[in-house]
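Re: Re: ligand-bound prediction request (bumping)

Still looking for help on this. To restate: I need the protein modeled with methionine sulfoxide bound, output as structure tokens. Inputs repeated here so nobody has to scroll up.
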Amino acid sequence: MQNIYAMNTAYQNLLKEAQTLINSGKPRTLILKETSVLLKNNVHHYDWVGFYILDENQILILGPYSGKPTEHTAIAIGQGVCGQVAESLKLKVVQDVSKEGNYIACSLDVQSEIVVPILREGQFKAEIDIDSHSPAPFTPEDEEFLGKLCCQLSVLF
Ligand code: SME
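Reply:
Sorry for the wait, this slipped through. Here it is.
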């Protein structure tokens, strides 16, 4: 079947740049940090880009990020949008955070959020969390782009 949401060139180029970073042999933390900066600096509606990594106690621990510091450095499974994705293993888009009942507010500027799981052999390892100050900015292109990015990043876990 034809993919009607063919990704734009900008997203395709970002995937290539991310792959170069992944292949660089740099430490994982540095690759994730540089990826978060790459995304925040190049996608207008990405205002905070960060990674949460599952630890041995099954808690999501804030990893590298780009954007304002957040006090939410540890999140339980099921808690907030991040915790829901760790439980369902499925990407979640919240186009209007004021309508999401299970949401942890980081900043009053945030209007929408997308969280995409990073799985390795079907196991949840980490996730990318993106906040936006724009209302309902996320399209199926974002979902495809971030899904592919998380597949690429999974080799680091
Ligand atoms: N809003 C997230 C918490 C993390 S901050 O966005 C950085 C949530 O509801 O899980």
